[in-house]
Design a protein that fits this description.
The protein is α/β, with parallel strands linked by helices. It is built from 15 helices and 18 strands. The strands form two sheets. It has an eleven-stranded mixed sheet, with helices on both faces. The two termini are 14 Å apart. Homotetramer.
Length: 463
């Protein structure tokens, strides 16, 4: 499930330094980076006229290398700079370009725009006039590329420090950076391409990619494939959605303990009506239960609180979602059993953990460490984080997922995959991927129920 390491600016600099220490020449690295980017730009634009914007640092240096290579291939290239080059490699690349250099504020637009103003070294937002000019030039181009990161985004957090135009493509140099996957910065590029610049990079934080799933063993039976219990409450629909998602996730068996007995839904989900919260503990006292999911449709009243307490006291692996997270956030101190999966959205996360510092990745990792649970910190850029420091960031989620009930489906998938794998981090990664894939297959304007029907196909694609 490792779709490529994600490095902060400091980690990237350390990886580059390790390469320099091993004898790699720093200008040679800039030539490699520029050549890799130029190849991607060439494939998209061929001989269409291009304007390359070059900043004062090494990102600008990459820009001069790109300009020279494209010019040598016959592309009509113009270069516009934002002041002088301040790094030795940048100065060398600028000299090797050797052509005219326009003032960025006066340069006319071109069919292709390449933004090599600032990369991982950006320390503050661009001046308003510069940011506005960048937006005009990018908006006027038919094809636009951001080199490493779009200028104006904070590489480590994905925050926008000044106005950032939308680019057709962002070329990540050597490794992904948090800004490539975290919002709002991630939303400023239509396409993300990773360019290999030949240096070794590694991180415990990576981009989420498609999982490899397996079919049940030949001698499997329903209990060896995982038994999920879903504790419902006030709102029947939510726990039913979660239960059916769990049943379609590969788990062997799903039981739902709720106040209602639904008249719809698959007969394969065993529904037991338990009106009094006291009955939950007894229903969960079955050692064959692998995972308990509680939260979707639970309710936040005393009844919901009692059901949550019974679920948490039962001693099974836990998935906590929705109302369970709100109740926990209100109670504050109640210990979350180790090995649980928590699926908070932004508001629930804040209530549980307060204002943690750093990027969404940093916050998810801190919450995982603090609670001992795997975090599925949801959103357009879901971050899955484990207490041991591993994290995965999902990108490209369908915006149609922002509809009622999709969180219940995700929670059910987490529970089902946890029952199958017994590994909370792996289960959470698989669940988030399956959820995104189901949404992609469901197309536009789906309702959460539609995800259920496409889950088997999403799983089939990964067997
Ligand atoms: N370190 C290396 O050897 C390599 C770096 N590469 C490129 O270099 C980039 C990082 O280079 P740098 O560290 O030089 O950083 P940048 O090129 O992002 O720019 C840093 C420079 O801009 C100034 N600056 C920062 N924010 C500013 C603002 N808002 N307005 C005006 N000036 C501002 C800084 O004082 C510094 O001089 C990467 O993103 C990548 O594109 C690649 O060439 C691969 C090799
Ligand atoms: K850039």
């Amino acid at each position: 499930m490792n779709g490529g390491p994600i490095l902060t600016a400091a980690e990237m600099r350390a990886a580059e330094q390790a390469a320099f220490d091993a004898g790699v020449d720093d200008y040679a690295l800039m030539e490699t980076a520029g050549a890799a980017a130029a190849e991607i730009i060439w494939r998209a634009g061929h001989k269409r006229d291009a304007l390359i914007l070059c900043g004062p640092g090494n990102n600008g240096g990459d820009g001069y290398v790109i300009a020279r290579i494209l010019r040598d291939r016959g592309v009509p290239v113009r270069v516009a700079a934002l002041g002088a080059s301040r790094t030795l490699s940048g100065q060398r690349a600028r000299a090797a370009w050797g052509g005219p250099i326009e003032d960025m504020m006066r340069a006319a637009p071109a069919t292709q725009l390449v933004d090599a103003l600032f990369g991982t070294g950006l320390t503050r937002g661009l001046d308003d006039a510069v940011a506005a000019r960048l937006c005009v030039l990018a908006g006027a181009a038919a094809i636009s590329h951001a080199v490493d990161v779009p200028s104006g985004v904070d590489s480590d957090s994905g925050a926008m420090l000044s106005a950032v135009p939308r680019f057709g493509t962002c070329i990540a140099l050597g490794a992904y950076k948090p800004a490539h996957l975290l919002q709002p910065a991630a939303g400023r590029s239509g396409r993300l391409v990773l360019a290999d610049i030949g240096i070794a990079v590694s991180s415990a934080v990576h981009r989420l990619c498609a999982p490899i799933l397996s079919t049940p063993a030949a001698d499997a039976h329903k209990y060896t494939r995982g038994l999920v219990a879903v504790v419902g409450g006030a709102m029947p629909g939510a726990s039913l959605l979660a239960s059916i998602a769990a049943a379609h996730s590969g788990a062997g068996s799903v039981r739902r303990f709720a106040i209602d007995r639904p008249i719809v839904g698959p007969h394969a989900v065993v529904n037991r009506r338990i009106e009094a919260p006291e009955g939950i503990g007894e229903a969960l006292a079955d050692e064959r239960i692998d995972v308990v999911l509680v939260g979707p449709g639970l309710g936040r009243d005393a009844d919901g609180r009692a059901r949550l307490a019974a679920a948490m006291d039962a001693g099974h692996a836990l998935v906590l979602d929705a109302d369970a997270l709100t109740l926990l956030g209100e109670e504050g101190a109640r210990a979350i059993p180790a090995g649980a999966i928590l699926t908070p959205h932004e508001g629930e996360f804040q209530r549980l953990f307060g204002d943690l510092p750093g990027s969404k990745i940093d916050r998810a990792l801190a919450a995982a460490r603090r609670s001992g649970a795997v975090m599925v910190y949801k959103g357009a850029d879901s971050v899955i984080a484990a207490p041991d420091g591993r994290a995965a960031v999902a990108s490209g989620a369908s915006p149609w997922l922002s509809t009622a009930g999709t969180g219940d489906v995700l929670a059910g998938l987490c529970a089902g995959r946890l029952a199958v794998t017994g590994d909370p981090f792996r289960a959470a990664c698989e669940a988030v991927w399956l959820h995104g894939e189901a949404a992609r297959r469901a197309g536009p304007a789906f309702v959460a129920d539609d995800l259920l029907g496409v889950l088997p196909a999403a799983i089939a694609a990964r067997l």
